[in-house]
Write a structure and sequence with these properties.
The protein has about 140 residues and is mainly alpha-helical. The protein is built from 5 helices and no strands. About 75% of the residues lie in helices and about 0% in strands.
Length: about 140
Amino acid sequence: MSMVTSTPEEEPEEEDEDEDEEDLDGHVPKKLRGETKTKSKLAHSTAEKRRRDAIKDAYTNLTESLLPMREEEKQKLTRADILDMACMRAEALKSAIAHKQVECETLQRKLNALNVIADAYDSMPKTSEKTSILLT
């Protein structure tokens, strides 16, 4: 018995059409896997570019909100410098908030004391003007 082998030219056309689709097991032919990888790489590159652009815009906005400065001065700042400045600004704001809270509590205590004095004054017996003139 001799075995008959087929050459690529002798393969039926139906198999070439099947390369563009998944087979019954859900496997994608190598030709499509390459195209899918290319599309996947393109999608990943696009998403990565959007992410980098968003980070760059955020650093730019942070720099502008921290220090209004000339363009030349902004170019000299590193991202570490910008983050350090943001941390220092956040700490300064925390300190200012704490100071304002202490001031608010002090003013509230003074207001309470004034209300006590006002209530005591209102509860004092009223004297007529004639009585006060005679006493003097």
